[in-house]
Amino acid sequence: MGKLKLTWNGHSCFTLEENGYAIVLDPYEDGAVPGFGPLKLTADEVLCSHGHGDHNAAQCVKIRKNSGGAKNPFRITEIHSFHDEEKGTKRGKNTIRIFDDGQYRIAHMGDIGCVPTADQKEQLKGIDVMLMPVGGFFTLEPEDVYALVKELSPRMLVPMHYRGKGFGYDVIAPLEKYTAMCDDVVRLEKNTLSLPEDEGKGTFVLTPPVK
C-alpha cells in the first residue's frame, strides 16, 4: 500500500494521489473563485460533483497520456444527492464520491445542499477523511454540517468551500463560524494531508493556497 496524499488546490478542488496515480476533484474555472489563482494541474483523471463553473473546469487540468503504468488504486462509489434542500429544483444535483483504497475511505461531499437520506448516511459511516463544504449559503449551513458530521463521525474532517482572509465568496460564511463549534481543531501549516503521516482524529484545517 502506497502513501496517500491529498492536496487542497483551493475552494473545493483537491488532488488525490497514491502509487503514482492522481485524481483531481472539482477544479474551478480561472477567475471563478476570489483569491485563488488559475489551476495548473496534471492528473490521470478528473471528477466533478456538478456542473457549476467553480467545480466543473475539467479543461483546466492536463490529463497525462501515459501514467507510467500506474493504475487507479481506488474503488469509487458515487452517491447521488442534491445541491439544495428542494431536491435540486434550485441548484441542481450533486454527486458525493467515496474513494476506497482498501485501507482508507475518503469522501468528497461536493456542494451538498441537503441532509443525506438514511441509506446515504449508512454509506457515509466509517469514513476516514471527509472533505466537507462548511460555508453555507450554496450548501448546507454550518450548523447543519456540524450536526451531520457529529452523526456520521468521520475520523478526520477537512473543511472546504468557505470564506477566509482574501479568498472565497462574500456570501458564504467564514471558516470560524464552523470551527467555533468544534473542540477538536488541528491546524496544519500546509495545504496537504498525507496518510499515514498526518493521521489523527478531529477537524483538520489546511493552509489555503491563496495567490
How would you explain this protein's 3D organization?
- The chain has 211 residues and is mainly beta.
- It has a single domain (4-205), classed as Metallo-beta-lactamase, Chain A, CATH 3.60.15.10.
- It contains three helices and 14 strands.
- It has helices at residues 118-123, 142-152, 175-179; strands spanning 4-10, 13-18, 21-25, 41-43, 45-47, 61-63, 75-82, 93-100, 105-108, 129-133, 156-160, 185-187, 192-195, 202-205.
- It has a seven-stranded mixed β-sheet, with no helix packed on it. Strands 5-3-2-1-13 form a five-stranded mixed β-sheet, with no helix packed on it. Strands 4-6 form a two-stranded parallel ribbon.
- The radius of gyration is 16 Å and the shape is globular.
Q: What is the approximate shape?
A: globular
Helicity, as a percent range = 10-25%
- Supply the number of structural domains: 1
CATH topology: Metallo-beta-lactamase, Chain A
Calculate Rg over CA atoms.
16 Å
| Residue-averaged pLDDT | 88
Give the biggest beta sheet.
Answer: 7 strands, mixed
Can you say what the CATH homologous superfamily is?
A: Ribonuclease Z/Hydroxyacylglutathione hydrolase-like
